[in-house]
Amino acid sequence: MSLLLNGATVIDGVSDKGLDGRSILMENGRILAIGRPDEIPVPADTETVDYSGKFIIPGLMNANVHLFVNVLFETLVRYEGGYEDLIVEASQVALRAGMTTVFDTWGPRRALMAVRDKIDRGEIAGSRIRCAGNIIGFDGPFSGDFDSRIPGIGSSHFVDRVNATWVENTGRHLMWLTPEAVGKEVRKYIEHGIDFVKYASNEHGGTSAGAFIQFSERTQRVIVEEAHRAGLTAQSHSSSVEGLRMSLEAGCDLVQHCNMTGPAEIPRETLELFTQKDCGAVVFPLTDNGMAVLRETISDHEWTMWKASDTNSRHLIESGATILLANDGGIFAPEVMQEPLIKGTWNGLPEEEALGRLATGHFVWLRAMEEKGMSPIDLLRAATRNIARAYRVDDDLGTLEVGKIADMVVLDEDPLQDAKNYRSIHAVIKDGALVDRDALPERPLLTAELRAPLEEEARYKKSLHHGERLPGCPSC
Amino acid sequence: MSLLLNGATVIDGVSDKGLDGRSILMENGRILAIGRPDEIPVPADTETVDYSGKFIIPGLMNANVHLFVNVLFETLVRYEGGYEDLIVEASQVALRAGMTTVFDTWGPRRALMAVRDKIDRGEIAGSRIRCAGNIIGFDGPFSGDFDSRIPGIGSSHFVDRVNATWVENTGRHLMWLTPEAVGKEVRKYIEHGIDFVKYASNEHGGTSAGAFIQFSERTQRVIVEEAHRAGLTAQSHSSSVEGLRMSLEAGCDLVQHCNMTGPAEIPRETLELFTQKDCGAVVFPLTDNGMAVLRETISDHEWTMWKASDTNSRHLIESGATILLANDGGIFAPEVMQEPLIKGTWNGLPEEEALGRLATGHFVWLRAMEEKGMSPIDLLRAATRNIARAYRVDDDLGTLEVGKIADMVVLDEDPLQDAKNYRSIHAVIKDGALVDRDALPERPLLTAELRAPLEEEARYKKSLHHGERLPGCPSC
Amino acid sequence: MSLLLNGATVIDGVSDKGLDGRSILMENGRILAIGRPDEIPVPADTETVDYSGKFIIPGLMNANVHLFVNVLFETLVRYEGGYEDLIVEASQVALRAGMTTVFDTWGPRRALMAVRDKIDRGEIAGSRIRCAGNIIGFDGPFSGDFDSRIPGIGSSHFVDRVNATWVENTGRHLMWLTPEAVGKEVRKYIEHGIDFVKYASNEHGGTSAGAFIQFSERTQRVIVEEAHRAGLTAQSHSSSVEGLRMSLEAGCDLVQHCNMTGPAEIPRETLELFTQKDCGAVVFPLTDNGMAVLRETISDHEWTMWKASDTNSRHLIESGATILLANDGGIFAPEVMQEPLIKGTWNGLPEEEALGRLATGHFVWLRAMEEKGMSPIDLLRAATRNIARAYRVDDDLGTLEVGKIADMVVLDEDPLQDAKNYRSIHAVIKDGALVDRDALPERPLLTAELRAPLEEEARYKKSLHHGERLPGCPSC
Amino acid sequence: MSLLLNGATVIDGVSDKGLDGRSILMENGRILAIGRPDEIPVPADTETVDYSGKFIIPGLMNANVHLFVNVLFETLVRYEGGYEDLIVEASQVALRAGMTTVFDTWGPRRALMAVRDKIDRGEIAGSRIRCAGNIIGFDGPFSGDFDSRIPGIGSSHFVDRVNATWVENTGRHLMWLTPEAVGKEVRKYIEHGIDFVKYASNEHGGTSAGAFIQFSERTQRVIVEEAHRAGLTAQSHSSSVEGLRMSLEAGCDLVQHCNMTGPAEIPRETLELFTQKDCGAVVFPLTDNGMAVLRETISDHEWTMWKASDTNSRHLIESGATILLANDGGIFAPEVMQEPLIKGTWNGLPEEEALGRLATGHFVWLRAMEEKGMSPIDLLRAATRNIARAYRVDDDLGTLEVGKIADMVVLDEDPLQDAKNYRSIHAVIKDGALVDRDALPERPLLTAELRAPLEEEARYKKSLHHGERLPGCPSC
């Protein structure tokens, strides 16, 4: 059966502007034709939808999500054996929010690949997933890279099991090896069926705010070569100006959150490497208002870092680098979002400015980069074509062209007028079919309501807590 | 339908020795007759079992178990919503091991009472449960009384919920109140339907090894009075000589682990209070071999404490106090028992000497107290009649007498010959019916095998772990 | 040589009001005569001072200071071997601030007694010291009672040495003993030459905010009896309503910070015990403004405690209890007072409201209690006569009467008009001689200026610090 | 005045063997002549010493000591303002042990340079010091690089001051900068007057056992270039095979503890770089017996590291690399050496095997490397000529040649016979004069006896300590 969409303004991502009154015909998941209504032969058995006054854009993409990001000890215990359920939920949240393809750049490989394959086979609804598994060089959720308090709190049986699930053969121990030996481990990991390779150019930040270098330049080259030899793209996790430069020199296809370089700004010569090397620049921007809110809760040193990252984003725009939308998008357990401490983090920003939320953060990204001066069509491409190209999937995805996979979003308002109009999603089409957005996520887990406290619990909160101290103690 | 047991030596707990070749007839859960075969009229529709050569004793009791003792963070997350399942499992482990009645002296009240009632109604198999809920004065599993590291690791939502489930209105905050105000809270807690009251005379030991006093003597009196007014018995958690003395003066019906008084021995005048006040002395003894094994792993200070507790046990026997068998019996998750650190604790003793295990610890108790000089019949009574009397349930339980509930254990070997013969359980009869021991526990959870490690996990263990340090670092 | 003071209004603490135009003659440290100028025979060789328009009051006393309170690890290392120097400094700060006698209720016994004796012998200037040494039952500065983080940070050699210096034979281990055995240790400690006995009725608060009871009522009685048998007064550290009641029942001569009873108010019957038992009520009050400032930085639970303590203070006034001025007065190292964290504590209040500072806190006390309704003459007596009586030194101290020790303060303004006038100190006379206040403290250590930072240090503060984290880390 | 030594076997370090019956004449600190007695013209006013039967070798050198290594919080407080005293003490301990020149590769720059200059000017006795100050890239003693527990325990005033004293402008914050910007900071640091530059190729090990890379290859090159431009040598702190390779590629003159590369062995191609690049290989070896003792106390993972380091040492010998003696030699406070925990570290080895002790560790080094197969003359050169060459001071030091500085050690036994004979020091000559070894160190501080415990302290140790727990607690 075919699907014909009539009457909309089509912003195909190829042309620099929208084309009014276009029709799009699709069949078997691909675009058969785009054009004026009279140019398109309509097969029998075609469902027709009138989208007059609407705007059709390519399906949104996200160059960096974590469909399973909430590696809180509690969550990992509670959902052990059910990680796939959480990933399905997240991929459906993404799809509902207009993202027809997401690139998961860190997570539990087996569960991610299992869900990826079920979605690819059409067994379940969800955003198309391409995934990296672990970030080469990082240890697991219960380690110095994430939460080093857990070993000794959790049983070692569980701690080791969880860490092993994330790390497999790609953890910090690779840092001890020669470049060649690291390459061999990466090759082994690729053979499991991941879609692209991500490695740590800088440490994760539990240690020195991300300043340490994880792999030497030579090792980084070897990792990138292994990825390319296997036909995959390679990318790095980078968080310092040297970590960034090394990633670019090593031949990465894209670099994650490349605007984040601690308190230092990216030097001009490194900015230029993006175009020289044709490397995608994944940027994590905050809105002006988000910056202002954050300023209130963080130290001067931290602020220095956010300011530098903001300046970097602007310089990257000016430098002509190919910019990619991404936001570490994930879903946190509601218990976490309720904690008072979350306020002091970027995840605790008001929803309008919270970049990291899977369901809405990409809209924040678009508004933030509009504020920093990106043009409307560049914003669209950052969320579609640029990502497809950097990940080498632009034969199938990223623009609305005949022959490509029929992924698209129908908006009520013109996204080229105002970036906030991306929120006006009217419909999502994936693989040539309308998505039943109201049904998503089919089984809310982390996005479900937190259940009400027990009667005792409420009472308990009112009485004295552990750890509180006597007022007036002279030396405490 | 009636049940007739023929041919066994019956050690009824009333007489000081066994009576050979006796028959016991039971119906509707109660004992109809005990006597020589020819003395007993056998109704039609009677099932007869020949136990010639066997020994029948009253059903074993345990004055202090914790059917849900494994308050490890992981366990509490994993089984949230399923605490009853764990309690059912434990009560079946107890029943299989010959304990027809157990007194649970600390645990989640609602779940314990729910299982208690299902067993009482005959809906599920299990040891008869009588329970106290929380120990009046203790905070929850995630507090200074148990594990103070968890707040801040677990979400406050979960931490508060768990603590509230255990504590309700009976936590440390009562320490701030006047005796009368504490009494009011105890009354409220009793109304929930607990079977007896347990309060903290000493702190739980997370702080100063149990030396602090939790409630003043006046408050202790008020708590005991509230229990008695409601027709319940009262007992205390005590861990110092003053905590013990205060409990006795306050009128407790029994005192838990009264032999544990830190590094100090119980003074003579306090020993005498047990008989003067007719108070049950619950003793936690180690075997000589258990003591020797433990000595290897603990500090001199800790050893002082164990030695004093051993001396106390012997003095209690000599003083003629009514001694009760108990062992904090519980089931720990297999992950926990596998931890290297468990070795240095009494739970890490070899099974033959490990007092605290629910399935076997009572056998250890009997051997340990035999070593310290208790007579065979006193050992039996410590495990049966003395417990029934102290808990005021001796109208129904504790001895084999006509009219009492038909709970009994059939042994292959004579327990009055050697305490180790209690292990030779041939059959268990509860409420006048044979227990299908082989079927218990029906659904193993904490007693199930630990699943095998992931392939990755095994590999992970071989590579470098978090937290290990460079050899040769001069100042680390 | 004699000293004659003429012309002042004398508020002798006996009469309820000031007597104008009185002269005071003193010799050999004692008051020879008080009266109208013409009533007093003036010996030859008499120095005469005209204090017309001034107000003379008895020397101020403080019922609870800690001349060595700053048990910060750093301070204890830096001044090891020189603890006496710190105590001399503090006693001179106290004297300069009008306190001619202070009762040190916790500190290093040997050093305190050494300084006490030097001052008594007139070898050095300083406030008259009477001291208790350790609080019976408390462990040392590097323990769960004060700072439990230090063992493992400090060498065990040093940690043990410091703890031993404070604790000697009177630490937490006494909690294990019978009342009689505790009594024996107290007797031994008294023999070292302390001036009064202070024991812990409640724990120090590192644990459960001060709610635990440290010693049973019987043990408390024995401790008090030992003090009285030796001719010393006894007092307790109390921080809960039961801890307070037990102290009163045990026969204490005074109870420290008795208004601090956690979140609960003192019940009426306990309030009445103060007069029934003739026990001194040491109160730690905050000013209304101090309370308001503190409210901003503390949690609701902590606020509950401060509010209850405020209500208690008012109730104690109404109940007619004998109230004593005290404030845990001590000197903190300037490094400590500079820490941002100090803001959230009562020591971090603005100087006008900071009760705990040795040099000024007693003035805060007087203003605070005036606000709560104490009459002018009762305020004066709380700071003089009441303290002398409670400590049984009123034969010599506390009022201006012939034969008593000539300790007095000359004020520029009338203290009975307004409590803030106590700050208008014109002169201090101790042992019949004018104190050279400008020379005190003779050797500033903790009261010296903090030296300026190194050039490198300033620079260091501007660069990135350890422990700061990468902005934008998804899971940190 | 001249000094003439007669009769000894001279092992000058140039020839491969000892020359019997040689005389050495020295004046004004330099060697005037070496030869047979009859070849040497003896000036008037010459002191002559007969060393017949003795062996004279060049003054020993140590390529890596830390004259102030004991950066324990306590020590840093106790000796604030007196760091030079500790450095003088250490330099005298070194001199007494035959080391006429030591290279201090990490310490407080100002104090080290001050002592260096006093010794150079002959104002005080001591080993000749050449020093680097901080290791470029490391944060201070109270940071993640050393002891991250102290911030929050120490006052921030003191913590910042200490850290600044060590770090100045060269800490971890340099990791954020571009290579050029790092170079500028290094230049500034060199201008303070340090003798050589040491930087971190790998992190210090507080984090990931030393696996992280601190500076990119490009930054390392820039640092080395800055050193060379200023006429100084450059060296790195390296602890992984990649960290080592990068150091060699960057042009280091020597690499510290290059045999320590975590669990991995140095690959052949990296071994070869030592000779290709003429880079000195500083090795930290353990004796066979030391390895065996250590094995008992460490984990399997740690053992893997020590084994690899041992294999590396052997491979370095085989590869013909120029090997340098060094041992991180320092003096620890006696309190530290007394701690039970020290046993599990290499500093806790029995003195005969403890590599890191300043007074004796170089003797351990020589025995250890002899065991691993170094020839007698190579051992001598590792301790003398090789160090002088690598540090570019071989015009003056390292061998006994006419014109060089007259530093030498007189041994009772032949060091070419057995490495243990280096311990048989008969005399030390520095700058042409006999050292009064018995007088050193002139003022023992860290090498003084620990004073005896207080009476109270001994008693305190016997009573119960904080933190001990109740035996028999079910869930602790």
Automatic annotation (TrEMBL), chains A, B, C, D:
Amidohydrolase-related domain residues: 55-435
Gene3D superfamilies attached to this UniProt entry: Metal-dependent hydrolases (3.20.20.140), Urease, subunit C, domain 1 (2.30.40.10)
Pfam families: Amidohydro_1
InterPro entries per UniProt: Amidohydro-rel, Metal-dep_hydrolase_composite, Metal_Hydrolase, Metallo-dep_Hydrolase
UniProt-listed PANTHER family: ALPHA-D-RIBOSE 1-METHYLPHOSPHONATE 5-TRIPHOSPHATE DIPHOSPHATASE
Protein name: Amidohydrolase family protein
Organism: Streptomyces edwardsiae
